[in-house]
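TA notes, week 10

Several of you asked for a full example with nothing omitted. So below is the full record: structure tokens for the whole chain, then the designed sequence directly under it. When grading your own attempts, check the secondary structure regions first.
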């Protein structure tokens, strides 16, 4: 696959470009400074499981759509209750920790490099408001940042990926979806997008049955592969 075959690059954000667990852990340490490492990991699992379960309920039609802000507030209350914290201000601060996620070491430079050659589109399950804060905190560079809130559903619903197709004005096969989550890429493939898996410590690795267009160690490797493919095609 060469650069000339791609008109825009679409990026998952949470986990792919920012270290979501690290940001949530930091919020938990601020919520309850006495927590030890195993305690933080238990609460992190509680948080993640709630978000996953409730997004799935929305996708299954078992619950009306709620933006990620509302789910984060619910998760923060669960975590605070489990930690024995009843300070409303502290719980509210914990709920906003999803907007203060650190970028991976290669993210900012990698986006800047790719942005010299392609329009970049962020596509996230984070709400519009959360995505604004997250992008600013992590220093993410976009030409367009899209929230699943605009489709009133969550990935992997095809409606979310259609947002990127519509905004780009290009056929799906001219878009490259980049993610650290194999489930995300499978859903994008279902709509006809090209796919690139980027390895992250917190991602969902591909299985032996997956067939993505590119596999990269990080964004620098992804850019190198696109450079090399374009050179070969030229």
């Amino acid at each position: 696959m060469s650069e000339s075959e791609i008109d825009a690059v679409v990026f998952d954000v949470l986990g792919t470009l920012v270290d979501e667990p690290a940001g949530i852990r930091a919020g938990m340490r601020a919520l309850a400074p006495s927590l030890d490492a195993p305690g933080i990991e238990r609460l992190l699992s509680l948080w993640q499981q709630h978000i996953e379960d409730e997004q799935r309920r929305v996708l299954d039609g078992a619950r009306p759509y709620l933006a990620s802000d509302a789910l984060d507030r619910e998760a923060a209350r669960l975590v605070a209750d489990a930690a024995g914290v009843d300070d409303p201000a502290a719980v509210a601060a914990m709920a906003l920790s999803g907007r203060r996620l650190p970028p991976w070491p290669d993210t900012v430079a990698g986006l800047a490099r790719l942005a010299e050659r392609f329009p970049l589109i962020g596509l996230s399950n984070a709400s519009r408001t959360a995505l604004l804060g997250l992008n600013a905190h992590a220093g993410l560079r976009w030409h367009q940042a899209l929230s699943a809130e605009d489709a009133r559903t969550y990935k992997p619903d095809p409606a979310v990926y259609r947002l990127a197709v519509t905004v780009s004005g290009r056929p799906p096969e001219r878009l490259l979806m980049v993610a650290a989550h194999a489930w995300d890429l499978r859903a994008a493939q279902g709509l006809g997008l090209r796919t690139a898996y980027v390895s992250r410590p917190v991602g969902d690795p591909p299985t032996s049955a997956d067939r993505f267009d590119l596999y990269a160690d990080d964004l620098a490797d992804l850019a190198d592969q696109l450079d090399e493919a374009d050179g070969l095609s030229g």
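The mean pLDDT is 95. Use that as a sanity check on your answer.
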